[in-house]
Design a protein that fits this description.
This protein has about 160 residues and is mostly beta strands. It is built from 2 helices and 9 strands; from the N terminus they run ααβββββββββ. The strands form 3 sheets. The protein has a 4-stranded antiparallel sheet with strand order 1-2-3-4. A hairpin with a 2-residue loop joins strand 8 and strand 9. It is globular, with a radius of gyration of 16 Å.
Length: about 160
């Protein structure tokens, strides 16, 4: 039975191709299992999006000395249970090495940023002096990055 589940997961990940819009089945789509395995801290560990709207888009792949890093842009919004509670949201850059979740960087929003790739770097659409680049090495992302006027540490 366990082998069957692993095979189904492998087929699901292969069919999703880890590209395009990841949130096709469930709110985390094909990324749910590797996020869970990697200790992703979002959604309180539930991965059901009961109280959360999640939009995940594949940004692209960065290859550094043969190591492949897949980059995703995640935007979320809370769904309040009571009408007098404010909606909150945010944006994260998710980083994977192949299919292993490495961590995320927080972007202070609003505004929401356009996330892209240039060479070995993740870029956001703001001026360089405000922090608009995360440069990856063969070891992956740095432990800290200055993005959108905020020094942020890589976290799970």
């Amino acid at each position: 039975m366990r082998i069957g589940r692993i095979l189904i997961l492998a087929l699901t990940l292969g069919m999703a191709g880890w590209q395009g819009h990841a949130a096709t089945k469930g709110c985390y789509g094909a990324l749910a299992a590797p996020l869970r395995a990697g200790g992703y801290s979002g959604d309180g560990g539930a991965y059901d999006c009961k109280d959360l709207k999640v939009d995940i888009k594949y940004v692209g792949r960065i290859v550094v000395q043969g190591r492949r890093f897949n980059i995703y842009d995640l935007i979320y919004e809370t769904i309040p249970e009571q009408s007098d509670v404010a909606v909150h949201g945010g944006q994260r850059i998710l980083i994977f090495r192949d299919r292993t979740y490495l961590g995320q960087f927080h972007l202070d929003t609003p505004p929401f940023f356009k996330v892209g790739i240039r060479g070995h770097s993740i870029h956001i659409n703001t001026r360089a002096k405000y922090g608009n680049e995360v440069r990856l090495t063969k070891n992956g992302p740095p432990p800290n990055a200055f993005l959108a006027q905020d020094l942020d540490g890589l976290f799970r």
